[in-house]
Amino acid sequence: MAEVHCVDCPLRRLPLFMSNSAQEIALVQSFKQREIRFNAGALVIQEGQTDASLFTLLEGWAFRFKTLSDGRRQILNFLLPGDFIGVQQKMADVAAHGVMALTDTVLCVFQRAALWELHRQSPTLGFNITWLTASEESLVDEKLLSVGRRTAEERIAALLVQLFHQAAARQTAPVADGVAFPLTQQEIADALGLSLVHTNKTLRKLERRGLHRIENGCLYLHDEVALKHAADMYGPGGVGGPSNRPLI
Amino acid sequence: MAEVHCVDCPLRRLPLFMSNSAQEIALVQSFKQREIRFNAGALVIQEGQTDASLFTLLEGWAFRFKTLSDGRRQILNFLLPGDFIGVQQKMADVAAHGVMALTDTVLCVFQRAALWELHRQSPTLGFNITWLTASEESLVDEKLLSVGRRTAEERIAALLVQLFHQAAARQTAPVADGVAFPLTQQEIADALGLSLVHTNKTLRKLERRGLHRIENGCLYLHDEVALKHAADMYGPGGVGGPSNRPLI
DNA sequence: CGACGTGTTGATCTCTCTCAATTAGAGTGG
DNA sequence: CCACTCTAATTGAGAGAGATCAACACGTCG
């Protein structure tokens, strides 16, 4: 149960993340309080909670979500190792979102003042936080385009392509040509604004057409070009391209 | 055509915005290059453009949007005076969004390096930029909930309530109990992921029920409680509540 | 005065939702 | 080892919210 020192953070070994100076790493370390584990399905942050801690996702997947009073749920985006959690809770004047663990997860917990102190003591890390926040917004933008204007088939195809790249960029041990994919169809549905049943039917249709396969919690893209075409995605479409991203 | 000095920025007189120190204002001023005007409908930033300037919206309304190859358009959020424009363009590794002027607008133009320099030279302003970015993301989150999980009627009601508060908070001269509302129904439709026709029908239904009225480019909420109820909004639901927001 | 943008309304059509039922796998307890 | 239970995936059938098509009204503007 030994906690990782930030210097030895396994995430820093991934090519996705840019390297920090020893000084920056020490600063981040000084704000780390502890690690905390959540089981799959556990609520990390409750909707409406405004005094949540700051977290960094170290292991596992989670997601941000919002719900309506009758239980309808919208998943805002998925969180993967290296993602920063809890910036909005301290800022928002509109009701905040919840965060739920999708798999068993390990999080690094930072004291609440860290957000400000990082800005104050290191402009570079402060800038990185802005970068991460803006970058997460881009993901939500993309999802809003999907949910607002794409058909069910296009939405599913877009999600598969995007998550594949997000997951691949954080994968330490490449599992053949597939990536770990722990989502249930209900979660896919809630992320895309679709019903469970229609999500299933559309997913099967794409699978029968040979574009992808989901098996034993792994996602394989058999025809990424066709998927991107089906999704009307003509950009790079993935996170983790040429440029690196900050790690706090 | 005299350009405003940041010290005399009319926006600072609004109760919505928190006050900055003279030093901070001078710093912001030092990065201001000029003002620029756009006519209604003009493209401020093109989709995919990654070298755009930074702007602050001084007068008028604009919106951020994304489109698919066949022209389907999703409006991501509306921009009102005081909003900061262009942070994502410098950060995103996914294709960026466009920005279009909704009315005739005046923008303050900042040099591109300002984003980093503000962080470097003033942790407070750097923190404010993070705040603004996170706050904008909250708006997109809320819209994603609408588009993904609310019915057409709920979406329209939610949008009316939200825009009413956003507009009211920036209004200098209160126009009776209404606020300026320059949106066409097409733009409302594109913001909510609905068709123009269905938007019109739903809008009329709410209007006939006496919940609101749109007349001569002004929006009046006749029964805000009922609208919030119709929208399934139980939080404060508005931007610009008790706490002030930064102005860059 | 005609062209154009915006708003309005009616009539279909269809994509997606809801309801219902079945299968398969993983645990659990007797 | 075998019922029993629970969750997740799957498939069919019918219903409905919202899309599309088509007309028309109204104001502005060159």
Model description:
- The structure is a homodimer of 248-residue chains.
- By secondary structure, chain A is an alpha+beta fold.
- The first copy, chain A, is 38% helix and 21% strand.
- Chain A has two domains: 6-139, Jelly Rolls, CATH 2.60.120.10; 144-231, Arc Repressor Mutant, subunit A (Orthogonal Bundle), CATH 1.10.10.10.
- Chain A has helices spanning 22-31, 114-121, 123-149, 152-170, 185-192, 196-208, 224-231; strands spanning 32-38, 43-45, 54-59, 62-67, 73-79, 84-85, 98-101, 105-110, 178-180, 212-215, 218-221.
- In chain A, the strands form three sheets. In chain A, strands 1-8-3-6 form a four-stranded antiparallel beta sheet. In chain A, strands 2-7-4-5 form a four-stranded antiparallel beta sheet.
- In chain A, strand 4 and strand 5 (73-79) form a beta hairpin.
- In chain A, helix 2 crosses helix 3, helix 4 packs across helix 7 (224-231) and helix 5 packs across helix 6 (196-208).
- At the A-B interface, strand 5, helix 2 and helix 3 of A face strand 5, helix 2 and helix 3 of B.
